[in-house]
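SAMPLE LOG
Freezer: B-3
Tube label: C17
Construct: single chain, 300 aa
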Amino acid sequence: MTDLDSIVLNFSPTGLLVMNAILAIVMFSVALDLKPSDFARLLRAPKPLLAGLVSQFVVLPALTFAMILVLQPQASIALGLILVAACPGGNISNFITHRAGGNAALSVSMTGCATMGAIVLTPLNIAFWGQLYAPSREILSAVAIDPVRIGITVSLMLLLPLLAGIALYRYRPEIAHLIRRPLQSLSMLIFLGFIVLALAANWAVFLNYARYVILIVVLHNAVALAGGYATARLARVSPYDRRAITIETGIQNSGLGLVLIFGFFHGLGGMAVIAALWGVWHAISGLVLARLWSRTEAVR
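STRUCTURE (predicted):
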């Protein structure tokens, strides 16, 4: 395999700032579906939510590390897999859960809670699991990763927009209802378009090296979906909740992953290719799974 550890993708500071802003808008649009009572209801019956968070922040990183030990990938690829697994659920998970006939309210609440938890858990998971694999440990030592800085970045991009969206829904619900759908659609289109433009400067490099890791990304995503489903089964939640937990675990916020890669790992090639391919593939696999599940109604 080509040495992806030595490849660096170029991304300007201005481009990174724009990506941060777009990701914040995407998170704000997701939060327009949230209200405080959603969290209160889940606190009264927290088992599905807790099972989902354990699946995201404990089971998936552990399964990812086991997969790395078996495959022994290059350092940047391994760290890319760990970083994606350490991110909270992706914003399209709510849409896919709804299409799959799963518990969309649980999905949205998991996205909100996981986003809050990501401030601490994302940098901790990157540091903990990355240090356990010797090749990726060298990268972490070289970049001197700062969990506090990552936590601040996650807060600015995800937590503050999330709280702003919840506040708007609480105090100006008519405005939230008016802008929710258009803003969600527009922000996702802008985000996807910006990712394409961001990679355009590195398009030849991306296409040249993507073929080396596409099977790893497909396998990793399958492991994530299977891990979510198994965790939900072990927690004995309803099939309705099980669909939400499975999809939340298999749809990761790869946009956040790219921001962290360009912001803290200097656009390291293997990591960036992993995160970018995840951003494409998890949408495909999620929609296929939703199509299959939509044919039967889940028991609540």
